């Protein structure tokens, strides 16, 4: 199909969502959307088949990432300005996410 795919997880007004962007010079938007929907449907089965130990490893790694201290003032202010720009003002988001993951 000759396409470019990008994914990102965002939080808008406190709601997490997955954004999938697909661009193609040759495929029509409907065909691309069908492929994305097929992937999402098949990926649910992959998650369902994921062994508990492997899931726990992913969960633990995500907790570790969220607990990492900022490495610079720039990193901290970048995260805070994202909260301000989005209007969510959840400056303790990482701590709340860790709490939810545990």
Task: Explain the overall architecture.
Helices cover 59% and strands 20% of the residues. The chain is built from four helices and two strands, in the order ββαααα. The protein has a two-stranded antiparallel sheet. β1 and β2 form a beta hairpin. It is extended, with a radius of gyration of 17 Å.
- Radius of gyration (Å): 17 Å
Unreliable stretches (pLDDT < 50, length at least 5) are none
Helical residues, percent: 55-70%
Distance between the termini: 41 Å
The secondary-structure class comes to alpha+beta
Average pLDDT = 89
Tell me about the biggest sheet? 2 strands, antiparallel
Q: Strand percentage, roughly?
A: 15-25%
Strand order of the largest sheet: 1-2
What are the secondary-structure elements, in order, as H or E? Answer: EEHHHH
- The count of helical stretches stands at 4
Tell me the number of strands: 2
Shape verdict: extended
Question: What structural keywords apply?
Answer:
alpha+beta, 2 strands, single chain
Short description:
59% of the residues lie in helices and 20% in strands. By secondary structure, it is α+β, with helices and mostly antiparallel strands. It has a two-stranded antiparallel sheet with strand order 1-2.
